[in-house]
Amino acid sequence: MKDFYTNNPRNLHERVSDKKLTKKQRRTEIIKNLTNCIAIENAKVGQGNKELMKKLQEKIDVLKTKG
Question: Looking at residue 50, what is its pLDDT?
C-alpha cells in the first residue's frame, strides 16, 4: 500500500498529496499507528503501560470487526 504520510526532518507527519483518505485507508492507517504504539510499549522496560495496551488492543479489535 502506498504511504500517505512522509516524515520530515523534524519527525512531523506531512501529507504526500491533497487527496483525502478513503474510510478503508484511514482505518488501516489507524490500525498501523495503534499497533506501533503497542509495540513501543512492549519494548519498554517492565513491558510498559499494560492498561494502555489493553485499551489500544480493544480499539484495534473494534476497527478490524468493522472492516
Answer: 87
